[in-house]
Every structure is written in structure tokens, then in C-alpha cells.
Design brief:
Layout (H helix, E strand, L loop, with lengths): L3 H44 L11 H31 L3 H10 L1
Length: 103
């Protein structure tokens, strides 16, 4: 059987093959979800002072509701993508260099 290290290396190798095409796709997704999150944040900023749009009774509940809306608006996916990118570039200098070049 393959060790955990071998399985991990096999997955990491997938992001390096074909001239880093999979890491390039992740970077594209990062920018897409970054913009989506930014748009969501702007909408929340426009709506935050209208109590009829929120179900919150306290400032803490409002903050939670706004955060939930940010997560649904793309922040959750953005965080997952960024975690994957960081995990991969931490293991590969060539991948790190490719991500820096694409940024």
C-alpha cells in the first residue's frame, strides 16, 4: 500500500504536471471568487444600515448574519481555494514561482 506521504506527493505532482495548469486554474478561481466576495461585501455595506433587510436583534447577531452572507457570497470558497494554493506552494518552489508570476 502507498504511504500517506506517497499519496500526498502524488496529489502535489498533479499540480505541477502539464506546466502547472492545475495551479493556474486555482489562481483563476482565486481571482473569480475574490471579485465575487468583493461584490458581496459592497452589497452588504449598502444594506447594513437598513434593519428591514436583516433578522438580527442585536449588534452581535447582525455581525453574524453579515458574516454568513459574506460566506455565502463567495468568501467560503475563496478561503478554501487560498488554503489549497498555500498548501501546494508550501511544498513546491516551482509552483510558488508560478503563482507569484500569475499574481
Amino acid at each position: 500500500t502507498q504511504s500517506t506521504w506517497d499519496k500526498r506527493q502524488r496529489v502535489l505532482d498533479k499540480f505541477v504536471e502539464n506546466d502547472h495548469e492545475k495551479i493556474e486554474r486555482l489562481v483563476e478561481l482565486h481571482f473569480r471568487y475574490f471579485q465575487k466576495t468583493k461584490n458581496s461585501d459592497e452589497e452588504i455595506d449598502r444594506q447594513k444600515n437598513d434593519p428591514s433587510l436583516w433578522n438580527a436583534d442585536t449588534a452581535e447577531e447582525l455581525a453574524e448574519e453579515m458574516y454568513d452572507k459574506r460566506l455565502v457570497g463567495g468568501l467560503f470558497v475563496l478561503q478554501q481555494i487560498d488554503f489549497m494554493i498555500l498548501s501546494i506552494v508550501n511544498e513546491s518552489q516551482s509552483t510558488f514561482e508560478r503563482v507569484v508570476k500569475l499574481s
